[in-house]
Amino acid sequence: xxxxxxxxxxxxxxxxxxxxxxxxxxxxxxxxxxxxxxxxxxxxxxxxxxxxxxxxxxxxxxxxxxxxxxxxxxxxxxxxxxxxxxxxxxxxxxxxxxxxxxxxxxxxxxxxxxxxxxxxxxxxxxxxxxxxxxxxxxxxxxxxxxxxxxxxxxxxxxxxxxxxxxxxxxxxxxxxxxxxxxxxxxxxxxxxxxxxxxxxxxxxxxxxxxxxxxxxxxxxxxxxxxxxxxxxxxxxxxxxxxxxxxxxxxxxxxxxxxxxxxxxxxxxxxxxxxxxxxxxxxxxxxxxxxxxxxxxxxxxxxxxxxxxxxxxxxxxxxxxxxxxxxxxxxxxxxxxxxxx
Length: 340
Known about the structure:
Shape: globular
Largest sheet: 5 strands, mixed
Radius of gyration: 22 Å
Number of helices: 16
Main location: periplasm
Domain Solute-binding protein family 3/N-terminal: 29-253
Subcellular location: Periplasm
Pfam families: NMT1 (PF09084)
Low-confidence stretches: 1-25, 336-340
Distance between the termini: 63 Å
Keywords: Signal
Structural class: alpha/beta
């Protein structure tokens, strides 16, 4: 009888302990903002791999631009987000405490200025007097303005509309604008009735480099380091798959179909868009060229250069002495050790 009682008591204790563990797991929640860019890791949003690997309940929310993501972060609604370097520079210059923990991509051919057929634009020299558009405070907006400046042009010479990408596509198709600096799926849509005038990579080579990154609030990064490391591991899993097994990401692949269903578009469009990405190996991310190096960090340098340009363009009012505090290598694991 005493044995039965002890067994019953132990069983109850185990049940309560399990319940407590489940309760703790249920408390591990995070809201993550993503965008419509074609990234291999977006498949993990759709199939739940991020949640499985981290053990967190993740509420993924889709945004039209990095500026929108940062607005949600500033309001406290989002703790982790996918953003471009221009809105990142603007947000940190205004005092938002965020840290880039993974470099998603750098200036490539996945973003470009597309001009409409019949617009009369055949070269950069033809931009004067035209109407162009880009998403507000996006990397594309920044690069469009930088491109104009490199040609001795200002917004007095070229009308620049800062509007969301869906509106850019609609205005372009109506003939209201002559071109747009965009990323996918808008990039694919604009190319159906136009041509690429210049890519993000080419603008970067002219002196205006950009990047896209995953960022977390300073508080979340400090309190959840294991989550960020697990999150990075999942991104790397899909990036490595894309790099090593192209067939698994072809137009008829399950991965391409998953991206199309999640982000909107066709599997063929996303399969093609993925080929335009300029991904950075983890060991290179950990180097001074990008996330490593503190004050020497390439990301910190680009943020400051971008902020200086945005202030010159009267888009922000202040430039910080340093942007090193907004970059971390803590989630990169062994790649950081390899750099030492």
